[in-house]
Amino acid sequence: MTKQKQSATEYDASQIQVLEGLEPVRKRPGMYIGSTGYDGVHHLIKEVADNCIDEAIAGHATKVEVVLLADGGVRITDDGRGIPVDKHPKTGKSTLETVLTVLHAGGKFGGGGYKVSSGLHGVGSSVVNALSVKLIAEVYKNNKIYRQEYTRGIPQSDLIVVGDTAKSGTSITFYPDPTIFETVVLDYKWVLDYLRHQAYLTKGVQASVQDERTGMRYAFYFDGGIKSYVKHLNIGKDIMSDDIFYIERPVEESMVEIAVQYTDTYVETVKAFANNVYNSEGGTHLVGFRTALTRVVNEYARKSGLLKEKEENLTGEDCREGLTAVILVKLPDPQFEGQTKNKLGNPEMRRYVEQVMSEWFAYYLDENPATAKKVISKALLAARARKAARAARENIIRKGALDGLSLPGKLADCSSKDPQNSELYIVEGDSAGGSAKSGRDSKTQAILPLRGKVLNVERARLDKMLANNEIVSLIKALGVGISEQFDLSSLRYDRIIIMTDADVDGSHISTLLMTFFFRFMKPVIDGGHIYLAKPPLYLLKASGNKRYYAYSDDERNEIMDRLIVERKDRGTKLDASDDKRKQAGLVDIQRYKGLGEMDADQLWDTTMNPENRVLIKVKIEDAEKADAIFNKLMGTEVDLRKTFIQTHAKFTNTEELDI
Predict the structure, then answer these.
(1) pTM for the whole thing?
(2) Is 501 annotated in the active site?
(3) What is the reported pLDDT for 277?
(4) What domains, with CATH codes, occur in the chain?
(5) Does residue 204 contact residue 182 with C-beta atoms inside 8 Å?
(6) Rounded Cα distance, 96 and 139, in Å
């Protein structure tokens, strides 16, 4: 039997396939959206908006609009083809109702509706419907406006025509169910960031957000696509050339798009995407890109004489120092490893990307010899630094890691050898280190005092880092190694707690340490092992040797208010002319300037005792923003830091400012 080929622009009931029912969604929402907290409720927006983006990727939409409504809902609209409204042959219902009420019913399964999409997002619409207390769908199609309303996934009416229109597209308005989600308050900033990324990845699409609650609105349009994205990623960095290498080429049924620019930093920033889905662990497209880049750079270096015949080839790591790149591939049937889509698995994409990158980046270097020379020179410097670092690392780290006899002398280790029950306090200064050693639980708590300011690794290569005693002591204490020897499974402590003074210097030291972890031991942060200790700001002393600790100005005031109320309840007469401290019955309020002011018992009670202490877990919610902030605060651009300080100075309490 001969099958008639279907037009790519047709989009009707025959292209919607039904796989299974919807019942499990409300029972186990976490299986479908990850969580029922902040991330989960915003994932609903992503599921609907991704469908709009898929219409744009397919060439059928140019606009995506998200409106956060004043009544707590959200409306997401595109100007695409509109969800089909004709009767579905399998369910007997309208196709719109099928898409919104049957799990795994969508235009991405059959291959006719979408040649390329960001995933099996037919799941998305029905899940959003099931987890919304109310959802209103409007489709603009066939010169008519179709409308249907749902409550918790159940249709409240048949699909009806409510008017005429000349436009086309789909509008979904939904209200997250407060009985499902911990919060149903939607974050304008989250939507802003999401749409910015989608606009970068889908050049020519206009993505806009409006917040009716505040009147704020913003729109994105990037004609340069990922070329504009690379420019955005390099804001504040010293770039080696103003021009950005950019190529977009079809290969068989797929599309390969690459943008590259080198900077004068020591870190690599590469973002890999497949059908607009960010692949944080890379995949075959990233492997193809790296293979081609290393080969092309080495070939040019040899051909130009910058790399001598007797010299060994540059490594991939050498070639990628200072590199900023975005790789975007579009393919008909993406195969991701795991539900999170962190890694692309399609083997053909390695070949496609390698082919495009090899040919066109070679042309780029040939046609831009000045830029090419800078790239090769930087790679050669990186190679020399790598060799120096290798020698230092072998001398300092590898020996210690093998024989276990090279823990830093200043480390007061814990007696437990079980990492799960062990924690390391990184303490500012010998004075606080002495109190911490005396006050700790020596079975589970290790203390590593650091002297002075830690090296700012944002401005240092690995060879310079390994010449710094404090950094080397930290690497040895953690046991995970560094660079290509890094092994998270060797981490000696489950919790690494940065404990510094509650002042400007303490904050600076914390920032320097977090810069080190972010740049050279990011898996330690990703694994949830890094914490900030929160020592108290105030000691409030009352008669009878009673003590109260406050961790902020507000908490200090709350304690005094509570004590005043308690004294009044006991019948104590208070003199209204007395200050608040006296009315609260306090004999003294001491503001701590540093951890060294506390004796061992106080430090244990307030900051180290697991029953009382306050720890702040360090998490990276947006690695791209974190990268930009570290570059801004710790990099070479003084003007960026000055602007940041001037912008945020108004939020500082000048009465409590440490000078």
Answers:
(1) 0.71
(2) yes
(3) 86
(4) 13-221 (3.30.565.10), 226-382 (3.30.230.10), 407-535+617-656 (3.40.50.670)
(5) no
(6) 9
